[in-house]
Design goal:
The complex is a heterodimer of chains A (200) and B (78). Chain A contains 9 helices and no strands. Chain A is an all-alpha fold. Chain B is elongated and about 70 Å long. Classes of the chains: A mainly alpha (200), B mainly alpha (78).
Chain lengths: 200, 78
């Protein structure tokens, strides 16, 4: 039988355990949230801290704690997207599947005097531009793209994290990459990055 | 023998290591003679590096303070 004092001590100890975990992970969680929901990052992390705190007692494996907290944050970010009606269903994205940024740059040749045309194209983009391009993508594609290529998760891990079959995740990643390529080009056109003197 | 379109379609999956062994062999065979697809592959690698650039913006001090305060509130008085 556990006496009241022991139970209280247990709760306090769990609280401290969660606090230490959250403090350690805070910079990483905030960075991820910035990429997933932009300006709502702070609110998303706050939601995740509240949910994580409530569920911490049920966590069996301390080693898995960072991944567990990440999964909570990703869900909080998705909830925010859903609440705003941002989520789009899987759909044909006109022409995106066939788009090749490599070929587009070669065909349009935006920097005729360049010896490294494709690299020069990428060098036009600052970090804020990359964030803005990612933010333009529908959440359905942005999430896997960010988790895979910005955060380094394996495709299987992302499928597990987002609770979708592996085949579906591969298809979303493929479409997300194509959409990202096309959005990079569109963004560069809209923001005047396709000029020789626009180079940073 | 696969076409350029088929190879290009699978380049990122190839780089991610998620293609079947037979597809991997077919892609590598195609790349062994197709200079344009090698260019596509190099560019795909650049794009991956481009996406993986660390976000160097630190968490603003006021945001950090508010989130840490949330944690303290959750824990309650010592």
């Amino acid at each position: 039988m556990v006496c009241a004092d022991e139970a209280t001590a247990g709760v306090a100890s769990e609280g401290r355990g969660f606090q230490a975990l959250a403090e350690r992970e805070l910079p990483r969680l905030y960075r991820l949230a910035r990429r997933l929901v932009g300006d709502e990052a702070e609110d998303a992390v706050q939601d995740a801290l509240l949910k994580g705190y409530r569920a911490y007692a049920s966590l069996d494996d301390e080693v898995a704690a960072p991944a567990w907290l990440t999964a909570i944050l990703v869900n909080c970010c998705r909830d925010r997207g859903r609440a705003k009606g941002r989520r789009v269903e899987e759909t044909e994205l006109e022409g995106a599947d066939e788009f090749s940024l490599y070929r587009k740059i070669a065909a349009e040749d935006p920097f005729p005097y360049s010896d490294s045309l494709h690299l020069d194209f990428l060098h036009q983009f600052g970090r804020e531009d990359v964030r803005a391009v990612l933010a333009e993508l529908p959440e359905l594609y942005r999430l896997p793209l960010v988790l895979c290529y910005c955060e380094g998760y394996q495709v299987k891990e992302i499928a597990y994290l987002l609770q979708v079959p592996l085949g579906t995740m591969l298809a979303r990643l493929h479409r997300g990459r194509k959409l990202f390529e096309r959005t990079l080009w569109d963004y560069a056109e809209r923001h005047g990055l396709l000029k020789e003197n626009a180079k940073r | 023998m696969i076409t350029c379109a088929e190879a290009v379609q699978q380049l990122w999956d190839y780089l991610d290591g998620v293609v079947e062994e037979t597809d991997r062999q077919a892609i590598e065979e195609h790349l062994s003679f197709c200079r344009r697809c090698c260019g596509e592959l190099d560019f795909a690698e650049e794009l991956r590096r481009f996406l993986a650039q660390p976000d160097e913006q630190n968490m603003p001090a006021d945001v950090k303070a508010r989130l840490l305060a949330t944690l303290t509130e959750l824990e309650g008085p010592a």
